[in-house]
């Protein structure tokens, strides 16, 4: 095996080990994938100031996210079907994050359930919530997250309707895979993945199956989820969610300054500047280009986090310089998981930490909390 130096190395390895339908689920955007690509490429437009002859000993990357101390300003974002990238994927990713000292966020559409992850970890993790038409189920889902000791609830607002994702449609994506010649060939071409999957009983959406009346198998699950994302979701819904939850609340999916102001008025603890990884509205602006105006709009009214396109520690640093309090990685840790399981997630985190630390030092800074517009050659007006 070649040396793993950067996230792209893990991506290449994951592509060779994960069945195409699941690899492309994570590594794709909606429609023409323009926004998906620009989430990454727009980072390249941001240039850094190199400084010399500055004392850069005793550096620290530690910060706080919603009052929680973290080893670096990076959390693992919620990713659906993580357990189809690698057997028990959510458990493995959560354990790697716990050891590293950064938050892990479990998706509503995970393969491993809230209870599965809680059973295999020792510290609280975060839970991401989609609001569905079945409010009784959503209420019970929130209660389950509370019972499992989750320390923050992340409410995703930008999936009232599912964006059209051509690769998923062509691959006939499902969890577990529906039998077809196409899916059978994909799975058979990845024997290592198959052997890992044979070691676990977790192959479907375990947060849902068995917890919704009438949903006990894949066919009933498919018909239920197809009609459940709620187009009526509004700002008014946040209050009852906040009351039911009673803890730290993060709002994800903000890409507009006016929406950021509305989110700040809800009393949430943080917002995440995000376009759902370019998987919803294709043609929307990249997350990093939206960040400065949102930071300007809300100031210190609410903690601003960032998600979208991060593939290196330099990307993390640029987002921090533009005003983000912290950041999230999705595909970067998914590549590591698909490549090497829990060890691969640890590799991804270590790569980003190392790149972030080196870049900060070359910018002449010792503390991550000192980063700002002054570290950029072309700060926003």
What characteristics describe this protein?
381 residues, single chain, alpha/beta, two-stranded antiparallel ribbon, 8-stranded parallel beta sheet, globular, TIM Barrel
Order of helices and strands: HHHEEEHEHEHEHHHHHEHEHEHEH
Instruction: Specify the CATH class.
Output: Alpha Beta
Gross CATH architecture = Alpha-Beta Barrel
Number of DSSP-assigned strands: 10
Number of domains: 1
Helix-strand category: alpha/beta
Biggest pleated sheet? 8 strands, parallel
Q: Output the CATH topology.
A: TIM Barrel
Radius of gyration: 20 Å
As a percent range, the share of strand residues is: 5-15%
Low-confidence stretches: none
N→C terminal distance: 46 Å
- Report mean pLDDT, rounded to a whole number: 94
Helix content: 40-55%
CATH superfamily: Aldolase class I
Strand order of the largest sheet: 3-10-9-8-7-6-5-4
Structure description:
There is one protein chain. This protein has a single domain (7-375), classed as Aldolase class I (TIM Barrel), CATH 3.20.20. α12 (257-265) crosses α13 (287-298) and α14 packs across α15. The protein has helices at 7-17, 20-26, 34-41, 89-100, 114-120, 135-147, 166-171, 181-188, 191-197, 218-225, 236-245, 257-265, 287-298, 313-321, 331-362; strands spanning 63-65, 68-70, 74-76, 105-106, 126-130, 152-156, 248-254, 270-273, 303-307, 326-329. It has an 8-stranded parallel beta sheet. Strands 1-2 form a two-stranded antiparallel sheet. It is globular. By secondary structure, the chain is an alpha/beta fold. It has 15 helices and 10 strands. The longest helix has 32 residues, at 331-362.
